[in-house]
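batch job 7 of whatever, protein = MOSC domain-containing protein
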Amino acid sequence: MDGTVVAVSRNGEYSFTKPNREGITLLAGLGVEGDVHAGATVKHRSRVARDPSQPNLRQVHLIHEELFAKVARAGFTVEPGRLGENVTTRGLDLLALPTGTLLHLGDTAVVEVTGLRNPCRQIDDFQAGLLKQVLGRDENGNVVRKAGIMSVVRTGGQVRPGDPIRVELPAEPHRALEPV
């Protein structure tokens, strides 16, 4: 169940997309060095407006590259970093991981999975109709979020494209991911 880092991205300014980089540095308890969303407390504007003292459970955003192939079949072109993620992965079913999973990125960095990204209308601002591709419903009518997962940095380190990702599942019983 291991995977690979395809791309890494960060942006020091508020913007929906994040430019790809040769590498990023993860800082324990904070997130991606130089990224606008780094910090111990919430940095997303809507969350800051509600309560700026909330813990930042969205320090590092990961998306599976396989999502890009899926939306391409519906006529959309999405490349790494374009949906605002910090780490684009390959070979992992990110959405099936339980809360608390540890992802070992490269030689030293470790992030803990906190939950699902809750896709917003900015995705449609990026490409009209794309939001419908990353949100769906299961057979019971429940909302299914497909736009990646969020995490916090437990151990800092460098992360680069091509780095391996090793999955460490939490103790059972596992808790399914919920939006954070």
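notes: Helices lie at 45-50, 66-72, 122-126, 130-134.
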